[in-house]
Every structure is written in structure tokens, then in C-alpha cells.
Amino acid sequence: MTEVSKARLREVVREGAGNLRALGARALLALTGIAVGTAAVIAILHVGHNARAEAMRQFEALGTDLVSLTPRGDNHDVPDLPPEAMRTLPARRLGLSEAIPIVSGSASLRVGRASLYTALIAADAALYGFLKAPVVAGRRTSDLDGAAPFVVLGADVARDAAASGRPVRIGDPVTVNDQVLTVIGILGPAFRSPLLGVDLNRAAVIPFQAARRVMPDAKITSVAARLAPGADDRATARRVTDYCRLLLRTGSVDVQTARQLIDGLETQMRIYALLLIGIGTTSLVVGGVGVMNVMLMSLMERRREIGLRRAIGARRRDITALFLTEALLLSAVGSLLGTGLGTVAGWIFARASGWPFQPAPLALPLGAGMAATVGLFFGLYPALKAARLDPIAALRAE
């Protein structure tokens, strides 16, 4: 591009910006529509990207080789899985390297004067390592505890109890479902497994054999397992399902792997993102119509100016370039503001959800692309209409 061309472009941009400032409130309304539509799309991109990143972070922290076994019964009657049969699944050469039966339910927990509702989990000691749950005080429950009345409190449960009264100490008695248990440990923050649906942060954990003492229905509600190295997740799921079917008289076992859940999650996120981007695009189209209306109104008010420009030598492409530049400037400023607002909205959502914020890679390119698309699409018609005005008729216009 020559120096003359650059100077001419700068002059067109400067003049277009001045014309937009002269439009005042009308240009501001059109700009607001573009900003809102862009902000909606950009915010959706950031939210979807961060939700997926958080899910992947949890899976990567616990491993993508997780497998969940959930008994499903007929008429809400959950089948009774034999605990020993579940523990010996790895020895059956079905493709699993580890299997931990879990009995879970809800409980009313009373610590001093504090009364809390929490999840109650009965499981083997291997569950702590499976979910990478650290101990900050005391110890974990052990398989050697048998049916002893011991309990380990999750990080959030201990925090809520402390907020309602005094801090929980090792050796304190707590009442769980009218049973007095002794606190032997307190856990630190642990990862929540989306596949297993187990959140040790908001749970009280007791020895597996103590389930019948504390829980009204001590049937296995799930089994946490891992794939053996090199095992195919789908083939393993089929083999485990067939094996469990032989153990049950009624009902079945639903086997789900982390890889299957990740695939399903990505599919759902794509559908969700497309739906919301469609809503945001609708807002953007409304803003684009506002840009077109502003440019058409500007054309009606500047007919004499256009006629004068044509009379002193301006070509049709010069008039087209002027009006198109104004539309592009309006769309660019609106998209820039919308990209900033959408990024702030995505950051707020991530922080409120407790996630680290990661900007979506497509946010900035998409924001710029939407500015150019809206400006060209909705500004081209007014620009061409202005360029086609007859100079003599335009000069006569009032």
C-alpha cells in the first residue's frame, strides 16, 4: 500500500468516526446492540471452555482409567451386590485392576450443638488413595477397624461444624443417624469424581463393615474401579456387565468408564454451545439491523452531501467506502466492548464456580470476525444505496 493510499484510508476512517459521533444517541443504541450480542457469544465461549477444562482437570487428576459400576433395580429395588465378589473383580481378568465397593446415603450429623446434613459413605480404606484424599488430622479408617464406630470427616463438613460451634477435634463424639461415633480423622480438600458421584469434601466416611450399624439399607450403591493397563474400556464394560448379570437374580449393573463420560460430556458441551451461540447470534443480528437502520437514516439526512461529493468528482466507490467504513467502525467498537464484557462475564462465572479462569482461544478471533461480518453484511446495502444516488436528484433533496 502506497503512502497516498494510506493517507487516504486514514482520512476516510477519521471522517467516518466524525460522522458517527455526530449521530449521537442513534449510533450509541446500535453500538449497544452489537456489544450485547458479542458479549453473549464470547461469554458462552469462555464458560464452555472453562467447564470443559475443569472437567478434564478432575479426570486428569484422578485418571482417565476410572470405571464406575452402579446397580440398577426394577421398581426402585436396588439389587444386592456381594461385596467379596466386587472386591475380587480384578482377579477375574475382566480388564479391571482395582475395585472398591461403596455404600452411600445421607445422614443427619450432630457435632456438639451443630446439626448438619451430609453424605455418609462406607468404603474400604483403598477409597482414600483412589480419590487422592489427604488427611490433615488423625488417621483414615482402616479395613482392620471392622465394624468399629469410627468416622472420618470431610474438609467441608469439618469446616461447617466449626462455623456452627467449636472446631472438631480427634476423639470427639458425633451422632450420625442416632448412632454415636468417634472422630478419628479429618480430611483435607479432595477432588470430586464426576464419574463416581462421590464428594469426600461433604461426606462422613465410616468403615465398610460399620454400614449395617449406621445405615438403614447397607446395600452397595456403587463400585469404584480402574481399568487394567492396556485394557479396552468398551470391551471391559461389556465383560463386567455380563459377569455381574450372572451374580444377580434381578436387576442389572450399569458400567460406565471415564472415557465414555468424557466423550458424552464433549458431545453435550458442543450441543449446549451451539444452542447458546444461536441465541447470542440472534442478539447480534438484532444489533446488526440497528446498524443498518442507523446507516439508512444517515443516508437520508446526507443526500445533499452525497450529491455535492459526486458533483465535485467523488466516485461511487468512494461513497461506498465511506459508508462501509462507518458501519465497520460502529461494529468494531461494539464488538470490542462486547468481547471485553463477555470475557469479564466468563471470568466472574469461573470464579463463582471455583474454577481457574482460562480464556477461550477462539474468543478474540471470533470477536474480530463478528465485527467484520456484521459491519460488511449490514453496512453493504446502505453503502451501495448511497453510491447509486443520482447526484442531481441528491442536490435537490431537502
TrEMBL record:
Domain MacB-like periplasmic core: 28-242
Record keywords: Cell membrane, Membrane, Transmembrane, Transmembrane helix
Gene Ontology molecular functions: transmembrane transporter activity
InterPro entries documented for this protein: ABC3_permease_C, MacB_PCD, Macrolide_Exporter_MacB
Domain of life: Bacteria
ABC3 transporter permease C-terminal domain: residues covered: 279-391
Subcellular location(s) of the protein: Cell membrane
Transmembrane regions: 27-48, 271-300, 321-350, 362-381
Chief localisation class: membrane
One GO location term (cellular component): plasma membrane
Membrane-topology annotation of the record: Multi-pass membrane protein
Stated family: Belongs to the ABC-4 integral membrane protein family.
Protein name (database record): Putative ABC transport system permease protein
Organism: Methylobacterium phyllostachyos
